Amino acid sequence: MTARLDYFKAAPAAMKAMLALETASRQLAIPAALRQLVKMRVSQINGCAYCLDMHAPEAREAGVPQQKLDVLAAWRESPAFDARERAALGWAEALTRLEATGAPQRDYDALAAQFGEAERVELTLVINTINAWNRFAVGFRSQHPERTLGDGS
């Protein structure tokens, strides 16, 4: 697969705005480990290899155990995730697959049971931001760096 264009070079003002949104999303009260789990799950759904490659090491650095990353695609069947993570992941899936889900009440109720109002808004911002990045990366065919086994990444 060949990259279609470098969106940072093509539209620096637009990407400056995206970077500002990303910076803001990293300064929210949502813990880094939970943000990374959500980013990984959304990127799995969207098939974004570039973002998965970027966020897997960031998730480990944030303290997400490797086992959670290994079973993230099947989080509903795994006992590795607590109620707060399950609520966040369910909401992330619902919003990422909005055309199919319509953001069902059950997912919102699970979210509301675990997160305060401000946290719900912040988590939604994190979900929207990674979805936007996925659309840039997948749409323009961004390529992640190739790594060899044992390089520590």
UniProtKB/TrEMBL annotation:
Q: Where is the signal peptide?
A: none
Q: Which SUPFAM superfamilies match?
A: AhpD-like
The segment(s) forming the Carboxymuconolactone decarboxylase-like domain are 12-94
**The protein, known as:** AhpD family alkylhydroperoxidase
GO MF annotation: an example:
peroxiredoxin activity
Give the matching Gene3D superfamilies.
Answer: AhpD-like (1.20.1290.10)
Q: Which domain of life is it from?
A: Bacteria
Q: What is the lineage of its organism?
A: Bacteria, Pseudomonadati, Pseudomonadota, Alphaproteobacteria, Rhodobacterales
